[in-house]
C-alpha cells in the first residue's frame, strides 16, 4: 500500500511537471509474454506495466514504473501474481575537465507477490550507477551496484561494469556489460555463492524511409550464468527467474508519430533450476509503446 | 584663497577620473589584443583592472563569459552569462551568449530554452533561430528542427545554412523529396556545397 501511494505521488508529480516546458515527460506502456519450453514446472509468464519519466532540461530526471506479472505453472501448481514498483532518480554533471557528461543514478525496487514460500516475496532492491557519456557520443562507461534484500536469509550484491562504443559514424552502438553477482546464502540460491555473465547489445540506426521501415534494429545476447539479476537498463529485477544460462534477443523500433515510438522485441532465454534439475528455455515477445509529451 | 582651493580640488578630481578612464581603456585594449593573439586566459586577466561593479559591469560579465567559453571553461562561462542575465534580463547578448557554452556541453534543452527566450524578445532573430535549430538537431528533435528551419528559410531566404538544416531535418524525417528540394535550394545559394552535392548524388 505504501509503495502504491508513493508511486501515485510520483506519477502525479510527473504529470504536473508535464505542464512546465522545462520538463520533458515520457510515458510508456509495455507488455511481455514468455512461454517456457521443456520445463517440468513452468508454463508461461506474462507482464504488463507502465512507466512515466520526466527530465528537467539537461539537469536530471525521475522515473516511476509499475509492472504486474503472472507466472503460471504446470501440474496444478497455483499461479503466482506479482506487483513490482520502480522508482529512479538521476542527476547529470558537466565538468569542464572531462569531455563528457557524468550521470549519477539511484533506483529503488519494491516487489510484492503471492509466493507461498515467501522466498521471492517482499523483495526490496537499492541500486546505484555512475556513468560517463562522451560529448561526441562515441564512448560510454558505467559502473553499477545493486543490493537486493530477499526474505528467508538472502541478500544479493551485484556489480555491473559496462562499456559502450559508437560505430559506423554514429549509426551503430555496441554495449558490453559484465554481471558479477554474489549471494549471501548459497542454500537459498540453488547452491550458488556467485555467478558471472556477460551481456552484449548492438543497436543500429537506419535512415528513415517510409512508414514501415524501423528507425533502429537491436540485437543482444547473454553468456555465462546470472541469478537474481537487476537490469538497470530495463528497470527490472529477475526475482522470479531461475539461473539464466544464456539468451538471445532481437528487436526493432518504429516511429509512430512525431512523439510516439513502438519497440518490438523477441528472443529466447535459457534457464536452469539447479535444485530441481530442470533445464528449459523461454521464448518471449516484448512490446513497448512510448510517447513523449 | 577659497577659489584657488576649489579649482585645485576640481583639477584633482578630473585628473583622477581621466586616469581611471585611461586605465580602463588600456585594460580593454590589452584584453582585445590578447584575444586576437588567442591568449584567452591573459585576455581574461587583463579585465581584472576593470571594475566589475561600474558602468561597464554588463560588458565585463559578457566578455568574461565569452573568454571563458573560448578557453573551454564552459561552466564558468555559463555562470558569467547567467549573472549578466540576472542583472539585465533584457540582454539579448547574454541570452545568445549563454547558448554557446551550453551547446558545447551538449545541454540541448537548456540551449533551446535560452534561444526561445531570445526569440520571444526579438522575434526572427537570426542567431537565436540558428542556435535553436542546432540544439534541436543535437536532441534529435527532427520535427521541431524542421519547423524552425522552415521559418528561418522564410525570414532569411538567401541564407545557405537555413536550407541545409531544413534538408537535414527532412532527411531524418524520411521525407526524401523535401530533403532533395532543400538541398537543391542550398546549391543555388552555395554551388558545390559538399553535403548537398553528396546527398543529391546518393538519392
Keywords:
heterodimer; A: 293 residues; mainly beta; 14-stranded antiparallel barrel; two-stranded antiparallel sheet; 1 helix; 5% helix; globular; B: 203 residues; mainly alpha; 12 helices; 0% strand
Description:
- The complex is a heterodimer of chains A (293) and B (203).
- Chain A has 293 residues and is mostly beta strands.
- Chain A is built from one helix and 16 strands.
- In chain A, the strands form two sheets. A 14-stranded antiparallel barrel of chain A has the order 1-2-3-4-5-6-7-8-9-10-11-14-15-16. In chain A, strands 12-13 form a two-stranded antiparallel ribbon.
- The model of chain A has no long low-confidence stretch (mean pLDDT 92).
- Chain B has 203 residues and is an all-alpha fold.
- In chain B, 78% of the residues lie in helices and 0% in strands.
- Chain B has twelve helices and no strands.
- About 4% of the residues of chain B have low confidence.
- At the A-B interface, loops of A face helix 4 and helix 7 of B.
In short:
The complex is a heterodimer of chains A (293) and B (203). Chain A is mainly beta and 293 residues long.
How far apart are the termini of chain A? Answer: 29 Å
Query: What is the general shape of chain A?
Result: globular
Major β-sheet profile of chain A? 14 strands, antiparallel, barrel
Largest interface: A-B, 17 and 19 residues
Structural class of chain B: mainly alpha
Which value, in Å, is the CA radius of gyration of chain A? 19 Å
What is the residue-averaged pLDDT of chain B?
A: 90
Shape of chain B: elongated
Helix content of chain A: under 10%
Strand count, sense and barrel status of the largest sheet of chain B are: none
Q: Detail the poorly predicted runs of chain B.
A: 10-17
- Give me the count of strands of chain B: 0
Round the Cα radius of gyration of chain B to an integer and report it.
Answer: 23 Å
Listing every helix as H and every strand as E from the N terminus to the C terminus, the arrangement of chain B reads HHHHHHHHHHHH
Strand content of chain A: over 45%
Mean of residue pLDDT values of chain A:
92
Number of helical runs of chain B? 12
Q: What is the terminal separation of chain B in angstroms?
A: 91 Å
Name the poorly predicted regions of chain A. none
Task: Report the count of strand segments of chain A.
Answer: 16
The number of helical runs of chain A is: 1
Amino acid at each position: 500500500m505504501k509503495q502504491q501511494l508513493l508511486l501515485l505521488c510520483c506519477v502525479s508529480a510527473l504529470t504536473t511537471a508535464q505542464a512546465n516546458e522545462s520538463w520533458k515527460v515520457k510515458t510508456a506502456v509495455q507488455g511481455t509474454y514468455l512461454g517456457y519450453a521443456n520445463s517440468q514446472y513452468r508454463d508461461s509468464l506474462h507482464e504488463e506495466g507502465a512507466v512515466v519519466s520526466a527530465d528537467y532540461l539537461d539537469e536530471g530526471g525521475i522515473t516511476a514504473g509499475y509492472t504486474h506479472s503472472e507466472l503460471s505453472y504446470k501440474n496444478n501448481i497455483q499461479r503466482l501474481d506479482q506487483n513490482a514498483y520502480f522508482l529512479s532518480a538521476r542527476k547529470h554533471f558537466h565538468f569542464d575537465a572531462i569531455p563528457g557528461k557524468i550521470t549519477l543514478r539511484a533506483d529503488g525496487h519494491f516487489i510484492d507477490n503471492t509466493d507461498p514460500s515467501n522466498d521471492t516475496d517482499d523483495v526490496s532492491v537499492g541500486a546505484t550507477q555512475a556513468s560517463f557519456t562522451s560529448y561526441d557520443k562515441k564512448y560510454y562507461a558505467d559502473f553499477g551496484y545493486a543490493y537486493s534484500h530477499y526474505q528467508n536469509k538472502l541478500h544479493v550484491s551485484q556489480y555491473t561494469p559496462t562499456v559502450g562504443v559508437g560505430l559506423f559514424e554514429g549509426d551503430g552502438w555496441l554495449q558490453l556489460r559484465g554481471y558479477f553477482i554474489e549471494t549471501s546464502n548459497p542454500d537459498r540460491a540453488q547452491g550458488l555463492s556467485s555467478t558471472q555473465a556477460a551481456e552484449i547489445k548492438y543497436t543500429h540506426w537506419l535512415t528513415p524511409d517510409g512508414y514501415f521501415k524501423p528507425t533502429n534494429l537491436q540485437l543482444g545476447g547473454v553468456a555465462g550464468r546470472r541469478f537474481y539479476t537487476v537490469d538497470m537498463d530495463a528497470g527490472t529485477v529477475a526475482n522470479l527467474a531461475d539461473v539464466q544460462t544464456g539468451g538471445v534477443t532481437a528487436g526493432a523500433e518504429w516511429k509512430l508519430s512525431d512523439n510516439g515510438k513502438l519497440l518490438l522485441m523477441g528472443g529466447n532465454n535459457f534457464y536452469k533450476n539447479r535444485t530441481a534439475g530442470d533445464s528449459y528455455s523461454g521464448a518471449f515477445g516484448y512490446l513497448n509503446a512510448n510517447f513523449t509529451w | 584663497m577659497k577659489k584657488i582651493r576649489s579649482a585645485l580640488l576640481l583639477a584633482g578630481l578630473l585628473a583622477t577620473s581621466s586616469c581611471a578612464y585611461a586605465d580602463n581603456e588600456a585594460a580593454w585594449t590589452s584584453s582585445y589584443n590578447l584575444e586576437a593573439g588567442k591568449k584567452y586566459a591573459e585576455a581574461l586577466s587583463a579585465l581584472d583592472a576593470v571594475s566589475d561593479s561600474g558602468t561597464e559591469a554588463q560588458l565585463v560579465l559578457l566578455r568574461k563569459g565569452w573568454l571563458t567559453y573560448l578557453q573551454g571553461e564552459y561552466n564558468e562561462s555559463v555562470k558569467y552569462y547567467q549573472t549578466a542575465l540576472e542583472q539585465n534580463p533584457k540582454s539579448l547578448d547574454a541570452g545568445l551568449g549563454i547558448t554557446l557554452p551550453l551547446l558545447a556541453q551538449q545541454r540541448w534543452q537548456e540551449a533551446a530554452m535560452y534561444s526561445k527566450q531570445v526569440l520571444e524578445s526579438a522575434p526572427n532573430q537570426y542567431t537565436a533561430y540558428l542556435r535553436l535549430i542546432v540544439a534541436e538537431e543535437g536532441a534529435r528533435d527532427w520535427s521541431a528542427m524542421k519547423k524552425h528551419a522552415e521559418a528561418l528559410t522564410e525570414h532569411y531566404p538567401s541564407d545557405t545554412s537555413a536550407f541545409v538544416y531544413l534538408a537535414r531535418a527532412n532527411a531524418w524525417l524520411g521525407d526524401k523529396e523535401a530533403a532533395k528540394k532543400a538541398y537543391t535550394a542550398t546549391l543555388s545559394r552555395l554551388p558545390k556545397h559538399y553535403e548537398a552535392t553528396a546527398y543529391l548524388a546518393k538519392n
